[in-house]
């Protein structure tokens, strides 16, 4: 069968398997874990931001608003748009409900203005 990698969330110590070519978020969801909030699943909303502390991965397209180049250099990525090449150690930093509500309000306001 296909190769898979172990993804370990540093704060909780929870680990799960992620198939090669599968996003970390999709693997997380399939195993019932709720490390980060889930939004668009397409790299645009920024809800599923994590920091990769160790390991190699490929990135799909992500919103530069939520992951500017300097953040990407520090390992900050969106779980929906990273695909492991090795075992990974990640740090999930779920956004608070207040932050999420603020971003949703900002997005809604921007959409109404257009």
UniProtKB/TrEMBL annotation:
2Fe-2S ferredoxin-type domain boundaries: 3-96
Residues spanning the membrane: none
Protein name: 2Fe-2S iron-sulfur cluster-binding protein
Pfam family, one: Fer2
Provenance organism: Marinobacter aromaticivorans
Signal peptide: none
Alphabetized InterPro entries for the sequence: 2Fe-2S_ferredoxin-like_sf, 2Fe-2S_ferredoxin-type, Beta-grasp_dom_sf
